[in-house]
Amino acid sequence: MLTTPIERVPRIAVYPGSFDPVTLGHLDIIERASRQYDKLVVAVLNNLKKQPLFTVDERMELMRTVTSHLPNVEVDSFRDLTVQYVVQKDANVIVRGIRTVTDFEYELQMASTNRKLNPQVETIFMMTNPKYSFLSSSMVKEIAYFNGDVSEFVTPEVEEAMRLKFVRS
Question: Where is this site: Transition state stabilizer (predicted)?
Answer without folding.
Answer: 26
